[in-house]
Amino acid sequence: MAPRAALLLAALALPPLLLAAAASSDPGPAATGVFQVRRKFPAGGGNITALRAHDGRRHGRLLAAADVPLGGLGLPTDTGLYFTEIKLGTPPKRYYVQVDTGSDILWVNCISCERCPRKSGLGFDLTLYDPKASSSGSTVSCEQGFCLAAHGGKLPGCSASVPCEYRVMYGDGSSTTGFFVTDSLQFDQVTGDGQTQRGNGSVTFGCGAQQGGDLGTSNQALDGIIGFGQANTSMLSQLAAAGKVKKVFAHCLDTIKGGGIFAIGNVVQPKVKTTPLVADMPHYNVNLKSIDVGGTTLQLPAHVFETGEKKGTIIDSGTTLTYLPELVFKEVMLAVFNKHQDITFHNVQDFLCFQYSGSVDDGFPTITFHFEDDLALHVYPHEYFFANGNDVYCVGFQNGGSQSKDGKDIVLMGDLVLSNKLVVYDLENQVIGWTDYNCSSSIKVKDDMTGATHTVNSHDIESSGWRFQWHNSLVLLLVILVCSYLIC
Questions:
Q1: Which residue would you say has higher pLDDT here, 125 or 431?
Q2: What kind and span of H or E run contains 192?
Q3: Which of 224, 266, 344, 358 fits a disulfide with 446 by CB distance 3.0 to 4.6 angstroms?
Q4: In this predicted model, which residue has the larger pLDDT, 436 or 122?
C-alpha cells in the first residue's frame, strides 16, 4: 500500500428515513395540488454537523396534475430538509409540515397537546389543529376500516366511541402519539401550462396529542410531518385511492441556479429509463449491481449488493448526503483520490475536507452506480464534493459504518447525488428511474382524464411573494402533493 493511500485510509477512519385509504367526499374529476415548500434549516447557517445528524436519524386512476413549489438549496452548507405549507379543515387553516417520502402518515399538532411548541425558531407561529373547529372534520373510530387496516385488526377494548390511536417512533428517538381524524385538504390542481386552480380532497391524518424528542422542542419546530411513503396510509395513497392523483411522482433538484421541480403525475417529457423497486420493502429500495470510478469497476464482494433487512440500496430524496458501507466508502475514496497523493485531509465538523484550487470536475473522476436493467446513475465531482469556504471542499459521501448500527450495511443515496437529475417514482408499475436534466427548465405531465399534456415549470419561492426570504432558495414542484423520505 502506498504511503499516501495509508494516510487516506487513516483520514477515512474519521467519525463521519398503515393501511386502507380514506375515501374522498368529492366525487369530481381527479386533480393535482400545489404546496409552497421551504427548508427546515435556515440557509447560510453552515451547520453541516446538524444536517448530518438529521440524516442519521432518518436512516392507475383518472387524474390531473399538481404544482407544488418547494424552497431551499440542496447543499450541506445551506439547508437540509424541506417543509411545505398545507391547508386543512373548513374554514381552511394553514400548517407548516416537514416533507418526508419515507414516513407513511400526515400528522399535525392537536389542540389537546399541552407541550407542543406554539412558535418556531424558523420565524413563524404554529397552529394547533382543532377537529371541533372544522365543519368537515371528524374523529376516526377504532372500528372504522382505516383503523383496522392501520393496526392489522381490531384494537383491544375497541368500541364505536373509542378513537383510533397512533404512535410513530423515529430513528432519532423522537415520537408522536395521538389519534386519527378525517378532514378536507386543499391543494392547487394543474389546469394548463403553468396554470392552477384550487382543488381539495378528504384525507385521514394524525392529530398529535404528545410529541417526544426533537419534535417537542421549539428551535426547529413545525406543525407536523407529511409522509409520502408507499403505504396506503400516506396522503399520496389516499388521494390516489380516491381518484385524485396517480401514484407517480418526480423531482428535479437544481443546485446550480436554485429552484427545481417536484411533481406527482405521469411525466411524459423527458423520458427516463427505469429499474425495478425491490418488492415488499418499506422504502424505495433498488438493486445496485456495481460501482465504477473513472470508468474502472471496483472489485467489491457480492454481499455488498445483497438486498434484505438492514442491507441493500435505498433512494432517499429526504436525506442530503449519501451513506456507503465502510468497505465501499473506503474503496470509493481511494479510487477518487488515486491521482491526488499530495492532498492533505483535515476534519471540518467530522467531514473529510481538503484544500483544492481549480475545478473539481476537471480534476476528479465521475462515479457511476449501475443498477438492475442497465440503469446508471452518474455522480459528478461537484455532486459528491461540496464547497465549504474558499478552495475548501468536503466529501458528501459518509461512512455508514460510523452511523447507526441499523444503517451500517445500507447504501443510502440522498439529495446531493440526486441533484440535477429528474427522478421519477412510478409506484403503480413499481419502478424508479432518472436522467440528467436541467432542473431550471420544465417538464411535461399528462392529464389522464383529458389526455392533454401540461408544462410544469421550475419555481423559486423568493419570487412568489413569500414573507420569508431564503438565500439561493431551492424550489421544487410536485404534481399533486409533496414527497420526502424518513428512514424510521
A1: 431
A2: strand 175-192
A3: 266
A4: 436
Instruction: Tell me whether residue 188 is one of the annotated catalytic residues.
Output: no
- Of 78, 183, 316, 426, the catalytic one is 316
Residue 76 scores a pLDDT above 50: no
Q: Are residues 89 and 194 in the same domain?
A: yes
Task: Say whether the peptide bond before residue 92 is cis (omega within 30 degrees of 0).
Answer: no
Model confidence over 425-470: pLDDT tens digits?
999 999 999 999 998 899 998 887 788 898 888 864 443 333 333 2
Tell me which of 55, 67, 100, 104 is the catalytic residue.
100
Q: Could you write out the DSSP letters of every residue in 12-81? A: HTS-----PPPPPS--S--------EEESSPTT---HHHHHHHHHHH------EEE-------STTS---
Residue 355's pLDDT is 95
DSSP letter assigned to residue 148? H
On the question of pLDDT at 1 being above 90, the answer is no
Residue 100 is among the residues annotated as catalytic for this protein: yes
The one-letter code for the residue type at 191 is T
Amino acid identity for residue 400 in this structure: G
Higher model confidence: residue 448 or residue 364?
364
What are 19's three cell numbers? 393501511
329 falls within a domain: yes
Whether 166 and 298 map to the same domain: the answer is: no
Domains of the chain: total: 2
Does residue 85 register a pLDDT over 80? Answer: no
For 129, the grid coordinates are: 389543529
Domain containing 362 equals 3-14+272-418
How many C-beta atoms surround the C-beta of residue 449 within 10 A?
Answer: 14
How does DSSP assign 281-328, residue by residue?
A: -SS-EE-EEEEEETTEE----GGGG--BTTBEEEE-TT-SSEEE-HHH
Q: Is the torsion defined by CA of 184, 134, 18, 413 positive or negative? A: positive
Looking up residue 276, the CATH number of its domain turns out to be 2.40.70.10
Are the C-beta atoms of 443 and 459 separated by less than 8 Å?
Answer: no
